[in-house]
Specification:
This protein is α+β, with helices and mostly antiparallel strands. It has one domain: HPr-like (Histidine-containing Protein, Chain: A), CATH 3.30.1340.10. The protein is built from three helices and four strands. It has a four-stranded antiparallel beta sheet with strand order 1-4-2-3, with helices on one face. The longest helix has 13 residues.
Amino acid sequence: MTEKTVKIKNKAGIHCRPSSAILTAVEDFQGHAFNIVTQKGKIELNSILNLLALGLQFGDDVTVKVSGAKEKEACEKIAGLFEYEFDFPPR
């Protein structure tokens, strides 16, 4: 298992659009198990609703845990999306 802790940098937190981007990236790693651990709870990262239910806000710490054949690559990719400063719509 590989894990990485990151801080949410998106000013609006993790709402519907970032959640969709994160879950789309998860789909690229079939056969991997993704878990998210925060002060607000822990979830299996397999649905947008699970992710939204955490109510993640700017500045929250998130630990991404991944197990699978390409776990290091998958962990970096997903953790990077939690750190990404989404700008919807682009300005």
